[in-house]
Design goal:
Oligomer: single chain
Helix content: 25-40%
Distance between the termini: 73 Å
CATH superfamily of the largest domain: DNA primase, catalytic core, N-terminal domain
Number of helices: 13
Shape: elongated
Number of strands: 14
Order of helices and strands: HHEEEEHHHHHEHHEEEEEHEHEEHEH
Largest sheet: 4 strands, antiparallel
Bound molecules: zinc ion
Structural class: alpha+beta
Number of domains: 3
Length: about 350
């Protein structure tokens, strides 16, 4: 074993992770690249200048320069130090004779492959058919948010309360490999986990013809300090809009409310309105416009720059297909449509003397 003095270790570890990545053949764009440790289709690996670090938020693995070389080249700690020393002209005493394993040159870049992933409809449909509503899910949907039971049923919303049980039941019906390929399970070290952060709600996304295209989950636990978002999609699947079949059944010029996210969509639907949802707040993509060209469109956008820019972006895309969208927000006090919906319900209960 080679001895590497601590002052050299710290010198190596403070080499810029950006420079080290470049030397390894990793291309970074906007501080991101595709993770080389898992089958990544969206750039999950991020680099940070402020503390000279890198991290893959899917693998949960990260570190500084030595760890990057170790992981990328499959080296031991010592080997990674020697590789860094040689590539950045830092002298480590008595290591001239050490021979490093040759690592095949490869290029990593943040470019996402364009080939659309095949949707395993059988696996996705099975999950939706078998995902009932847990007490936690019912509390959220019916007590806290007061969405209509008929709407939740019609939208085939389900839930997962126990990750281990979900994996066990699912892999009794389908092989683990197939579930991973379908994007619903991931391997994390020696464990197999759902791609969804549990406990969660499951929202199935269908295309206009009613074929399942994706499942999105909404985490029901406390978000705490972890910055990870509430929503997950099947790995590799690009979500379209939620409740797209309504576009097929609605006539020309019918009113359609465009919600920012599924929960707001449920609020509109609970009021008896026709609604679809963008897969997240502000997540409009120009290609959605082609599906929205025939309807009279409304949206309740945030009263801030993000809201204004979303409205502008949607109208630019919609104008190209001969349509436009109207902002229906008049108030400033509600965070989103779900909150507005709840406040309307409370007013109504007050009026009818049923408010508790
Ligand atoms: Zn990763």
């Amino acid at each position: 074993m080679v001895y590497i003095p601590p002052y050299i270790v710290s010198k190596l570890d403070t080499l810029s992770v950006y420079d080290v990545a470049e030397r390894l053949g990793i291309e970074i764009v906007s501080n991101h690249t595709l993770c080389f440790m898992h089958d990544d289709h969206h750039p999950s690996m991020s680099f940070k200048k402020s503390d000279n670090s890198w991290r893959c938020y899917v693998c949960g693995v990260g570190g500084h320069s030595i760890e990057l070389v170790k992981r990328y080249n499959g080296y031991t700690f010592q080997e990674a130090c020697i590789w860094l020393a040689r590539n950045f002209n830092i002298e480590i005493p008595d290591t001239k004779e050490v021979r490093l394993k040759k690592v095949a040159a490869r290029k990593v870049s943040p470019k996402v492959e364009e080939t659309p992933k095949v949707v395993d409809e059988e696996v996705l449909e099975w999950i939706i058919r078998n995902a009932g509503l847990s007490e936690l899910a019912k509390d959220f949907l019916f007590q806290e948010r007061k969405y209509s039971k008929d709407v939740v049923k019609a939208m085939k919303i389900g839930s997962i309360s126990d990750a281990t049980k979900f994996v066990a039941v699912l892999t009794k019906v389908f092989s683990k490999e197939r579930c991973i390929k379908a994007g619903v399970l991931i391997e994390y070290g020696s464990k197999t986990l759902p791609v969804f952060r549990v406990p969660c709600l499951l929202f199935p996304y269908y295309d206009m013809d009613g074929n399942i295209r994706n499942i999105q989950s909404r985490f029901l636990g406390d978000l705490e300090k972890k910055k990870k978002g509430r929503f997950n999609n099947c790995k590799g699947l690009t979500p379209l809009m939620f409740n797209m079949p309504v576009l097929k059944s609605s006539g020309r010029y019918d009113k359609i409310y465009v919600a920012e996210g599924v929960t707001d969509c449920l609020a509109y639907l609970s009021e008896g309105k026709n609604a679809i949802a963008l897969p997240g707040a502000g997540s409009f993509r120009p290609e959605y416009a082609q599906y929205l060209k025939d309807n009279t469109l409304f949206i309740y956008v945030d009263n801030d720059d993000a809201g204004k820019s979303l409205l502008e972006k949607m109208n630019v895309a919609l104008r190209k297909v001969g349509n436009s969208i109207h902002n229906i927000r008049k108030d400033t006090e509600h965070k989103d449509y779900s909150e507005f919906y709840l406040s309307k319900l409370k007013e109504h209960e007050k009026d009818t003397g049923k408010f508790v």
